[in-house]
Amino acid sequence: MIGIRNHTADVLADGWLPYDYAPLALNWFWTLLLPIDVIVGALVALRQRAGVVLGVLVMLADVGVNSWYAYRTDWLDLFRALQFQSLFLGFVIGTAPMLWQQPKDNR
């Protein structure tokens, strides 16, 4: 939900593709995380296994892309954010098996 809040604030403040300091591909990636995060949140709330898989994949991609960009640009604020994002990735991966093993009637 933090991702939804952050990306929504960015889009509301600066419009679609608000990350104009980044290469266009990254701008698109970060902007598209808004609808993707909403979909993941809805799928997890509806107890769909697809939400678990998609959530792990999105977090892996996001941490990977952000890590690459942080090291490429030596962006200190992004390094700080990556510490929390990496911790959340660990939480997502750690809780994925519990979310996966839910009662059959909720799949």
Write up what this structure looks like.
There is one protein chain. The chain has 107 residues and is an all-alpha fold. The protein has one domain (2-106). 79% of the residues lie in helices and 0% in strands. It is built from 4 helices and no strands. It has helices spanning 2-14, 24-45, 49-73, 76-100. The two termini are 22 Å apart. This is DoxX family protein. The chain crosses the membrane at residues 25-45, 52-70, 82-100.
List keywords for this structure.
transmembrane; mainly alpha; transmembrane helix; 107 residues; DoxX family protein; membrane
Task: Label the overall shape.
Answer: globular
Count all strands and give the number: 0
Structural class: mainly alpha
The percent range for strand residues is: under 5%
Order of helices and strands: HHHH
What is the makeup of the main sheet? Answer: none
Rg from Cα: 15 Å
Query: How many domains, as an integer?
Result: 1
Could you tell me the mean pLDDT? 92
**How far from one another are the termini?**
22 Å
List low-pLDDT spans. none
Number of helices: 4
Helix content: over 70%
Secondary structure blueprint with pairings:
Layout: H1 2-14, H2 24-45, H3 49-73, H4 76-100
Helix pairs in contact: 1-2, 2-3, 3-4
Transmembrane segments: 25-45, 52-70, 82-100
Keywords: Membrane, Transmembrane, Transmembrane helix
Protein name: DoxX family protein
